[in-house]
Amino acid sequence: APSVSDLKDARFDAVVVACGVHPRVPEIPGIKHPKVVFYNDLLSGKSHAGRRVAIIGAGGIGFDVAEYLCHSQPDEPPKSRAMDIREFQQEWNVDASLTKAGGLSGDPLAPKPSSREITMLQRKKTRPGLGLGVSTGWILRSSLEKRGVKIVGGVIYQRIDDQGLHFVAEGEPSTLAVDTIVVCAGQVSNRDMLTELLKTGIETHVIGGAKEASELDAMRAV
Ligand SMILES: Cc1cc2nc3c(=O)[nH]c(=O)nc-3n(C[C@H](O)[C@H](O)[C@H](O)COP(=O)(O)OP(=O)(O)OC[C@H]3O[C@@H](n4cnc5c(N)ncnc54)[C@H](O)[C@@H]3O)c2cc1C
């Protein structure tokens, strides 16, 4: 990536900063424990998740991470399933031979085996996944339900240690004995080079997640 002095040397008339976001680091004691990974490192394949996983945060990214984990084996490199027609048909019991009534070979919502035990947690008491897309959120929710993904709301995080993730829900203290804790707890703007850049006096425009990280989606970023 270019440094601020590279940008200065290139004598640009203006610079647009569109460096995106960093994951937000929640203030939970033990957040630097080796069990903890951040969603960006997991999805890029830099970090891996074990068999028993807790996901901190049940927003859009938390749901995508849960879906990704349901369809990958522990320690397997990430792969895209988006274009795998056969896997889609198996997932939803679509009858590709077109011989069965309704085009279905079975109940599309029947439980499916999962190689992982996944629990999603959120601080809010509202229904999990409330902010998911109206036309697509139900697909994600059904897909996770089929694989037995649990969602716990109204959580107060206590700490992370060798035992796992400790929290309180509805007044009851609990411990999730997990191998991996994936943090999907929001984002903060990536302004790593902004302060230095502004000092140069070059005309600077900040856009997308670098400008405002909350409630970010691709529509607002552009
Ligand atoms: C798992 C996940 C699922 C999502 N799903 C959706 C969705 O379904 N719909 C939707 O609308 N949005 C979705 N989003 C949000 C969407 O990705 C963001 O809102 C959008 O990408 C923000 O655009 P941006 O240009 O601000 O940043 P980004 O798209 O993140 O781009 C920033 C780029 O800057 C690069 N960069 C960083 N620092 C430097 C540097 N110093 N020099 C040069 N380059 C640098 C980064 O490598 C990156 O390529 C999702 C996000 C995630 C993480």
Automatic annotation (TrEMBL):
Cofactor(s) needed by this chain: FMN
Organism phylogeny: Eukaryota, Metazoa, Chordata, Craniata, Vertebrata
Identification of the protein by name: FAD/NAD(P)-binding domain-containing protein
Superkingdom classification of source: Eukaryota
Record-level Gene Ontology MF annotations: oxidoreductase activity
UniProt keyword list: Flavoprotein, FMN, Oxidoreductase
InterPro entries xrefs: FAD/NAD-bd_sf, FAD/NAD-binding_dom, NADH:flavin_oxidoreductase
Keyword Oxidoreductase: yes
Tagged with keyword Zinc: no
Organism: Chiloscyllium punctatum
FAD/NAD(P)-binding domain ranges (all copies): 8-204
